[in-house]
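User: Thanks for the earlier help. One more: Right handed beta helix region. Can you show the sequence and predicted structure together?

Assistant: Of course, both are below.
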Amino acid sequence: MFQKIIIIIILLSFQTICIAKSIKIPEKVTNLNFNLTDEFKLALNSNVDSIIIKSNIEDYFLDPVTLFNIYNKTIIFEDSVSLRAKPGSFKKTNDVLFKFINCNNIIIIGNNGELSMNKNEYVNGEWRNAISLLGCDNVYIEKLHIKDSGGDGIYIAGSSTRSFSSNIHLNTIICQNNKRQGLSIISAEHVVIENSIFCDTKGALPEAGIDIEPNSEHDRVVDINFNNCIFEKNGHSGILLALSKLNSNSIPVSVTFNDCIISNNHRPENPYAKAELVFTAEKENSVKGLVKFNKCLVKDSDWSFFYSRKTSSAYSVTFKDCIVNNISKNEMSAVINLEVPDYYKETDFLGGYYFDNLQLEYYTQAPYLRIRGSHLNTLKGISNIKGTINLISNTPKEIEYINYEEKNNKDVDIRLNYIFSSH
């Protein structure tokens, strides 16, 4: 009997230890313009595990929130909760709504709530992000509508003490009407982004849906995965891989897009390359690696399927079972547009693209592939462009060469299957 009592006491004690502590905020709402900043920061810096934001009023206001070394916290939005940047409180150009620095094991459950800023107020600067994850590990964010920031909807990078973020999982996120990008990845590994939408980016260049753009050769882009995401109606490309700061000494890149839709991106006023996808790399000593598109759909665009000045010695790009439909409605835009890396200095071959059963359907007179060299003959050639393209159209399409001779092609093997359709 005595042993049973001891066992029961031990079990009860263990159960008490395992029960997570939680708190609901705010404790009391005093007005319709309630500022939640102090209570929110106090809760996150306390010993509670879960912070539940109550749905008392239409909008809670927040000043910039910066959190250092926060561990094991869950933030839960009750239904219809909206957290909004307080007007006039983000005076510095790098003020961020939620900035997490060296934080681990963070969960944010949005329950379809909103995180919004006041983009029209931020005339100068392009760094007022809604969420910044700097040197963080094990972060999960779901069901959150992030909009109207003065920079990026979400920004993922390293910190001064940890050069990358890792194990980041974003699920069912909408990044809409942000000023610079929907999402930026500067330095990260083991990232999964799924069931999310990146749209209507406009206000500060580049204006891409997502921009993967390291700042130095020491940054990393490793095991980055997008599943079932949509990139549409952004001011620049839906997907921008700006990898020119990485080089052959950098860790090879690995990025995968599965079952994604890229549609109707790039506004005419944007001066950057007019394409749904853009790939860049350093001209010499480029970073290696692999970027994969599996079962993706690119559609309804005035502009190119993709544009690149990437050399064939840089990372490779593969397209497997992808569909490209109603593209290059502006006939000046070739479907695939490759341009000499340097107009004044000879560089390596252009290329490094592989098409595994690509279905291409369009009805304008734009060439399906354009190779643009230079008057100074600085384009050594094109190489490592291979695969099968099934072309559905009312007329055959050609490859267009500008200031470049086809005889310089090396290891180019595109099997173009023409399928007539009167549309």
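User: Great, one quick takeaway?

Assistant: The CA atoms of residues 243 and 281 lie 5 Å apart.
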